[in-house]
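Fig. S4 source data, part A: sequence.
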Amino acid sequence: MTKLPFGMKAPSKGTVIFCSVLSAISGTVYASSESTKKARQAHCDKVSFLADRPCGVHEMPRKVCVYLMPPPGDSIEKSRVWFREYIKPILVAGAVDYDVKEGKDAGAVESAVCEEIKRMRREEAAAAAATTDPSVPAIDAPLQSEDPHKSNPFAPLMKDVQKKIQEQNHYDGVIAIGRLAWREVLNGVAKGCHADPFEKPKEEQQKEEQKEESTGELDQQQQQQQQFEGESNVPIEEPSKQEEVMMTDLVEENPVQKVDHFSIPANMSPIIYVPHENIIGWTNIPYRLFRWVTDYTRMEDIGQYAVDVILKQTRALQVEDIDVGQQEKKYWIGEEAEEAVNNDTPITLEDNVRSALSTYTKSDSQ
């Protein structure tokens, strides 16, 4: 055995094994991170031309709404990380603004979508009433009022800008991350189309009821004080049996008729489902390590949904597009997730509502 120069000694067997394992792990992590960066950059390059395009003077940036819900058996932070890692960078690269709305409790996303649909229906009803009845003030009535600075040459431009803002008072697209959020988005759209658009939200109704109860209690206290002060109490005659029978007959003859308020807004935003696989559990640790090493494949798959939203190539929503996300259920593990698994039924949507909705097409398949 030849000696090493400069008096160096050969490393021991344990040192060689340690350095080999450390180099393999470090090389794997580095290769995975670099591959993920390349996949992310490839998606950003597909949409970056929209950000480089000069924006018009009266042109408003596109804006989408992202709905998040916590996966069963875990916290909502997992959904936030999923959006932040795979969708947000591509939206930023395509110069698309976004609003993130979180539904931490069941039904929160559904009520938010329902109120948004009702707001759109109210605006359309107000605009229709303003065109048919001239006595009803239009939405842009303040823009048409007399202005002391009417001679200002920039006044027409300001009117155009304000009208453009009013026209774009809706989202250009809706992104639902996960099966739970997707279900509540569709349910919210259906309920919003059937509900009374002028009905107040439940929170406001509860507040009004509480105010009425408090005012009623105050009135009762005032009446009791007046009675104790010596005011004459007028005896109240109880209705006879014949009068009670007549009143019940009138109620039965005139039952309360339910009014159908169904209508669909004209400008419905396209919606899209984004898969969210929250892999948890001790038995899934090997698969979690594998997905962590091959994270670039997930970036390629999930990032493509964001590219489709930005490129804005839409098609009609089909029946097979509704009940999606079945692959997520096998990762709903734990005591808290058992209820979600048992209560998970096929997602359905009425045909008259589905025909008015659209979704985004796969740009890589064209």
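Fig. S4 source data, part B ends here. Residues 13-52 form the longest helix (40 residues).
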